[in-house]
Automatic annotation (TrEMBL):
Catalysis performed (reactions): adenosine 3',5'-bisphosphate + H2O = AMP + phosphate
Protein name: 3'(2'),5-bisphosphonucleoside 3'(2')-phosphohydrolase
Organism: Serinicoccus hydrothermalis
Lineage of producing organism: Bacteria, Bacillati, Actinomycetota, Actinomycetes, Micrococcales
Positions of Mg(2+) binding: E64, D82, L84, D85, D199
InterPro entries: CysQ/Inositol_MonoPase, Inositol_monoP_metal-BS, Inositol_monophosphatase-like
Superkingdom of the organism of origin: Bacteria
Pfam families: Inositol_P (PF00459)
BP term (GO), one: sulfate assimilation
Length: 255
């Protein structure tokens, strides 16, 4: 019997395969921009919704691409999904910094999740499949590397860089930025402009499974399956830099 960790990975991979096929087919036909973004959102949502109905019909779902009927608020198990995180990057062939997010919330906690990066052929999950520790930082105390949006870098990133002697690493979707801390290509991802639960649930579940620090910018726990699924801020970082990073953030106006 497939457990929840395996199921999250299987669902993310299934949606990723569909997204790659849709992207290739429509790009070859000359379809791009908004039409390509919408096609990806719709196709991935259909795959995930159908699979969840078949595999876990009694579970509730919170998705970016579906109406929130709030039945999830009385459910013990809620799948929080973003069928296509990084639609801009998905539509800009051949960019690979977009993702599929699948997470399971149960009784107040994120208990399973997967983040697929289909164009890179890799999926990170809370299962044990292929999971190893995060890579060590290079020797010599190099500058902290902050993952930031390539199109909308936060205003505080420059100040944080000066305060901590950090450099910024621009990239696409929230899932890609969080997974860059997992794969060692950055040391921290800080978001303070607000985002929805589906933007961060799966990345946070996976990051925590790899031993990373996850919290709000004030260090308090992240909470999911709220009536209003809006989340103000987020920190995902290597555990050894969490204390200094949170201390620096506490001195800044992140509004």
């Amino acid at each position: 019997m497939t457990d929840d960790h395996q199921l999250a990975r299987e669902l993310a991979d299934l949606a990723g395969e569909r997204l790659l096929a849709v992207r290739a087919e429509l790009h070859e036909a000359g379809i791009e921009g908004r039409e390509l973004k919408d096609a990806g959102d719709i196709a991935s949502q259909e795959v995930l919704a159908d699979a969840l109905r078949e595999r876990v019909p009694d579970d509730a779902v919170l998705s970016e691409e579906a109406t929130d009927d709030h039945e999830r608020l009385s459910s013990q198990r809620v799948w929080i999904i973003d069928p296509l995180d990084g639609t801009r990057e998905f539509s800009e062939v051949p960019r690979d910094d977009w993702a599929v997010h699948v997470a399971l919330w149960q009784d107040g906690e994120l208990v399973a999740g997967a983040v697929a990066l289909p164009a890179r052929g890799v999926t990170y999950g809370t299962d044990a499949s292929g999971r190893a520790g995060i890579p060590a930082r290079p020797d010599g105390d190099p500058p902290l590397r902050l993952a930031v949006s390539r199109s909308r870098p936060p205003a505080f990133a420059e100040e944080l860089g000066r305060t901590m002697g950090a450099t910024t690493v621009p990239m696409g979707s929230a899932g890609v930025k969080a997974m860059s801390v997992v794969d060692g290509s950055s040391d921290a991802y800080v978001h303070a402009g607000g985002q929805y639960e589906w933007d961060s649930a799966a990345p946070v579940a996976v990051a925590a499974a790899y031993g990373l620090h996850t919290s709000r910018v004030d260090g308090s726990p992240l909470v999911y399956n709220k009536e209003n699924p809006w989340s103000p801020d987020l920190v995902v970082c290597r555990p050894e830099v969490a204390e200094s990073l949170l201390a620096a953030l506490a001195t800044m106006d992140l509004g």
